[in-house]
Amino acid sequence: LTDASPRFGRVVLDAKKLTGLSLVPNELLSDSIISFSALIERLWPRTLAFEEDASFLTGTGTDEPLGLLGAGNSAAIAVPAEAGQQADTVLYENVVEMYARMLPSSLNQAVWLISPDVVPQLYKMTLAVGTGGTAMYVVNAAGPGPATLFGRPVLISEKANAIGNRGDIAFVDFSYYLIGDRQMMTAASSTDYRFGNDQTAYRIIQRVDGRPWIQSAITPRNGGNSLSPFVELAAR
Q: Residues 6 or more apart from 206 whose CB is under 8 A from it?
């Protein structure tokens, strides 16, 4: 056997502290018809999940996870706009080029992630044919979601970048993103912190980190264009 001499890198997940603090007047706790403590305990996990998702997508990596979208992800591919393409638009040609740059082994796992403002662009996409054209994204508006594009689910999220910016539409395989939960969410309350203001303090803490698994795009065996599980449309 011939030694292939594989090279390995190391991905470090350095847990970042995600915190929240709420001050609640004690009369609200006393007069509330429902248990306000129970309400806080239901709302905080949703808030943490929202902020975590936002960081996993667009985080800078400084005091927060490194997101899978944007130039900070060295493994991401930003597909350039078409020549003469207008600002804040998404063309059928863009989508085709993005699909072609997805890692083939990820094609059956990847999903489209789009900003809400991109929705009208998708539903109105056309392909020029001579002097006419044809609609390219025709879906059953009354059917169950999520809609699909090239057979892959389309997820709409306000956590995606604003339309016209890099990452307003992306094609990603989330299995190539690593998440490390060092400390699950813990919640505590204190009547002493703001005793003089007659308030109860609620505090939550979670320690987590995340970053892309691979460090660069992949050169295919045939030497063609680089491929990646993280493909975005560049700014327009």
A: 17, 18, 19, 48, 52, 181, 183, 184, 185, 186
